[in-house]
Write the structure tokens for this entry.
Amino acid sequence: MFDNIAGKIRGAARLILLVGLVISLIAMIGIWITGGGLSGRGGGFTVFVYGLLAGALGCIGSWIMALYTYGFGQLIEDTEAIRHNTEDTQYSAEALRRMADERRRANAPKPRQAEEEAQ
């Protein structure tokens, strides 16, 4: 359920866009068919403009929400990649420190060698 959350959020962004576009177009057509609740005043042009505004603003709003949602999903994916790279670097640094310590211990003079060299 919580695996690949970034991909799921980006998929939800696509769904938000699709559903928003469909609802906006249905609202636009609905306003045109019903007359937008106007009772004969202003004529058909006003109804046409209201329907067009509802459709356009709904589509733009859906697109903006989808952009924010998709961007959030992308941000999560990039953050996960940065964390994995940092962990790999951290483990590499620890391995290098261990190797350096082992080399120092291997090259360090042994106590008996130190006594023989002193004599």
In short: The first helix runs from residue 5 to 34. Residues 5-118 form one domain. Residues 38 and 47 are 8 Å apart (CA to CA). The chain has one domain: 5-118.
